[in-house]
Design a protein that fits this description.
- The protein has 363 residues and is of the alpha/beta class.
- The protein has 2 domains: 185 residues, 3-Layer(aba) Sandwich (Rossmann fold); 153 residues, Rossmann fold, CATH 3.40.50.
- The protein is built from 13 helices and 13 strands.
- It has a 7-stranded parallel beta sheet, with helices on both faces. Strands 10-9-8-11-12-13 form a 6-stranded parallel beta sheet, sandwiched between helices.
- Helix 1 packs across helix 13, helix 6 packs across helix 11 and helix 9 crosses helix 12.
- The longest helix has 21 residues.
């Protein structure tokens, strides 16, 4: 029997979906291991252990902070684990305990943070590179969520291929009942996510504007909280409001309704580690047009219509095709259902449990 600590500080965030499904999947596996989750203090009261083998302790250490390097490391050692799984790549450099890490992507090392001064952004990237490299080399295994993210990990950190394990995430149908969202009348293109520059939202807006010249009933819906990047876009280009509707925060039920009623889901991102929103759209029968960058063709296969994310005209052409060709739309919906079925949270949890077993044996 092993005691495994899961760094689940991101449990209640959007990216915490990976952690939540991992925990539920581990609870369904017959195992003698016991698990301790590190959760944010404000989330402890709302968390329910999935079985008697799971417990949670609070950790207020912020990502990329001094407390992460000192207090969190000390707390982990005090728990006396046999193994620590860092479910995100941010972590203390030294903990004195065997570890594995899930590396979702190398975006921090690729993208300059425009919200920070150049010197601060470069310093953060340098610190991230040092931290990721150290974690990739000292860990007993490095879990990646796509072949592309594994290649990126090795390219940036020199991590050993023999220690790299691929476990694909998955997408489920949103369980909440569909809840209508008040939108302008007409057909809509759906974008889900934050508005950081590498998500390429502005080119999508420009592509929808081109489509609207011939089909004025089509508009863009941007679902999700409007962040600082989104406000900057709207402040700099107020005309965007003529072609796009920003919903702000949406509930699970509202997100389901948007997936089920959108004419097409667009994913124009420059960089992704897996691309969960597009797969989630497929689950709900929404045809997907996608950037051809990074991992997205690997994950979506033949279930999406691809475009060069640099080319506004290509994005617009892909949107027009889905909007105007019913046969293509139906084909994408069918292929999307089939593609989404290839991915399983249960399988991901089982593969991760196998990594624990090998790591606990020192392999």
């Amino acid at each position: 029997m092993g005691h495994i600590v899961l760094d689940a500080r991101a449990y209640f965030t959007t990216t915490g979906r990976y952690i939540r499904n991992l925990v539920n999947g581990l609870a369904a596996i017959e195992s003698d291991h016991r698990f301790t989750l590190l959760l944010p203090p404000e989330g402890i009261a709302q968390w329910t252990p999935p079985s008697s083998r799971f417990r949670a302790v609070p950790s207020a250490a912020a990502f990329f902070s001094l407390n992460e390097q000192t207090l969190l490391a000390r707390q982990i050692r005090s728990l006396k684990p046999d193994l620590v799984h860092f479910c995100m790549q941010q972590q203390p450099l030294w903990i004195g305990v065997p570890r594995i890490t899930t590396f979702h992507d190398m975006t921090l090392l690729k993208i300059r943070n425009a919200k920070k001064p150049l010197a601060v952004s470069l310093l953060r990237r340098a610190a991230g590179w040092a931290a990721f490299t150290a974690a990739a080399h000292v860990g007993r295994a490095n879990i990646v969520v796509s072949r592309y993210s594994g290649d990126d990990l090795r390219r940036f950190t020199g991590a050993s291929p023999s220690k790299t394990v691929l476990t694909y995430p998955a997408a489920d149908v949103v369980a909440a009942a569909a809840e209508r969202v008040a939108l302008p009348s007409g057909r809509f293109v759906l974008f889900v996510g934050n508005q950081v520059p590498y998500k390429n939202l502005e080119r999508l807006v420009d592509a929808v504007r081109l489509v609207r010249r011939e089909h004025p009933d089509v508009h863009l819906v941007v679902a999700g909280r409007i962040d600082d990047d989104g406000r900057r876009i709207l402040d700099r280009r107020p005309e965007i409001a003529q072609n796009a509707h920003f919903t702000g925060y949406v509930s699970d039920g509202q997100l389901r309704w948007l997936y089920e009623n959108a004419s097409v889901f667009a994913f124009p991102s420059f960089f992704e580690g897996f691309g969960l929103p597009g797969l989630e759209a497929m689950r709900h029968g929404c045809p997907v047009v996608s950037s051809s960058a990074t991992c997205l063709p690997e994950v979506y296969g033949d279930a999406a219509l691809y475009f060069d994310p640099e080319r506004v005209d290509e994005i617009a052409s892909a949107l027009r095709r889905v909007l105007l060709e019913p046969a293509l739309r139906g084909d994408l919906v069918q292929r999307g259902h089939e593609r989404a079925e290839l991915y399983s949270w249960r399988r991901m949890a089982r593969q991760t449990h196998d990594v624990y077993e090998r790591s606990l044996r020192g392999r």
